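# step 3/5: fold
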Amino acid sequence: MKQKATVQGRSFLFNALFVLVNLTGLTFVAVGSHKNFEAQYMLFNFIGYILLALSAAGIFIFQGRLMMANVARGLVGGLFIVSGLVKANDPLGFSYKLEEYFEDGALAYRIKELFGAPGFSLEFLIESALFLSVVICIAEIVLGVLIIIGGKIKLVSYLTMMMMLFFTFLTWHTANCDSSKKFVDRDTFEMTDQLAAIKIEEAKTNKEIKIISKDAKTLVVEEKKQPQCVDDCGCFGDAMKGSVGRSLSPKESLWKDIILVYLTFWIFIAQWIIQPNEKKQNMKFLLGSGLVIVFFSWVFGWYFPILFGAIALLGSLWIKRSGGKVLGNYFGVSVVVTILCLLMTTYVLMYEPLKDYRPYAEGTNLIEKMNDGIEGKYESLLVYKNKKTGEKIEYNSTSQEYVDSKIWEDKDWVYLEMTQKEIIPTRIPSITDQFNPFLPVADIGAVEMQLPIVKELLAQSKISGFKILDLAYNSEMEIPEAEYTPEDFPETDYKILDTIEMTNPSFTEVSIRDYIVKADRIFVLTVKNLNEANWSAVERYKSIYAECKKAKIPFVMIVNANKEEINAFRKKHKFNIPVFLNDETELKAIARSNPSLLVIEKGIMKGKFAHRSTPSFDWIKRNTLKK
């Protein structure tokens, strides 16, 4: 009879030592591949792989697979719960990231390239991005719980490995995407589509566009395009950027997934000897995975995962014991955890994320976020190569070392190129110029003119000029004084009628960006999509707008819409509010709710209210403005 596998294997002490050495080796390999340790790359990798190989051999010889798998279960399970919760906290934001990957030049180009399928596309998934976002978040959390409690471990190990291999492919693609490289893309157009006619014309002069087939109904075109490289995989949503100041780089994300694949591998190869947890084992796994959850909750500055993890894990154990024939199993556990996840995702989709990591979070100083960027510092290096040995050496062209070397006189060395080395990486501000509420001067109406800042900006745009009569055509024109010269406007052809004050022709739009962040107090209604917005609270907005007018508090709406859509909205809802325009991408970042009401005081985001939870002006006055 085959002996049952135990955690201690042949030696608890030796196996514990091997597991510790194995994780140490994994750390050396991962750290050695980071750009901050480029100089120690060979050393770290040599040490790391030696430790991994020796400890893995020891684990197999001393039958410590179960111990290694259990450690991996605590680490992977805990991280899956936190990672899933961070994304479930903002499933809409995660769906935006999925939409980026589903664009034809993003992830699909890898498939086109690897399998020679230029017509392959993932764009059909864009409409399902939010659904897939929610499914992925829930699956990650459910798998994390089942890994920890040892439920259906064979099935779970397969699902976890498949998920991690997919995520690793995703991060590998992100880390190795080259936007300068081109791929062959094949598109099909209806002949009634204007793009079909455009492509036919372009194909006549552009060698990179080739017509594959054409009939009365459709046109098939092959075209060389550049990939759309996604610079952030969205693995932890906005949590990493909002908590530690930056997201994981594509290479760091790839290594994070490689580590998880490695740990998942140990679970996978031990699936046949892993048994459902006994009571004492549950306590150990709850403690181990709990420490992982606590650590990452601390990193992200959000302790809700600790509460959620405790409820999910303890609730799972309770339902398995008390759920009867129907729910007293791992299916029941999965159902309970799924319901918990759905309750959370439903709430955040109806309102706003529980923890807002974006630069527009309540309590944030917008002015600081607009100025927290770092200007990068780079060093230009001259690269020389030894003709005999192939050795390469770099010199700073302004350094004394380069001058003293006189390497340009040495016939054994040849100049190769000039490269740039990053000394201090550039970091763009948290709030960029994409946040720029503006309105074309031609579209400014009476309601916008009620804002003192608009009158002030228009007044500042006034310049001196001349009203001139064109004698040949008997027509009048206005010319800026700076552009007038007697040579260009001779008296025989033109006559100066008057000296005037005119609007600067180069002043085409009014921006209230600075006004919003510097105002003593301002209410802002953001609408990322005017036609798809939920206007169930429009009467409340109108009431708040009326109270703001009485209190002389500016109230503006920022939308992504054209003039006709704005006028139709005003007419339909009888809501004549000052409206300014902004890019939809930034409006998505400002608030997930569509629409959302912001209260800003001297650049501080004092309040952010989803349309379903918009309070009255009196409530805002009592609870928000007095903070």
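# step 4/5: annotate
Residues 65-88 form the longest helix (24 residues).
# step 5/5: archive (pending)
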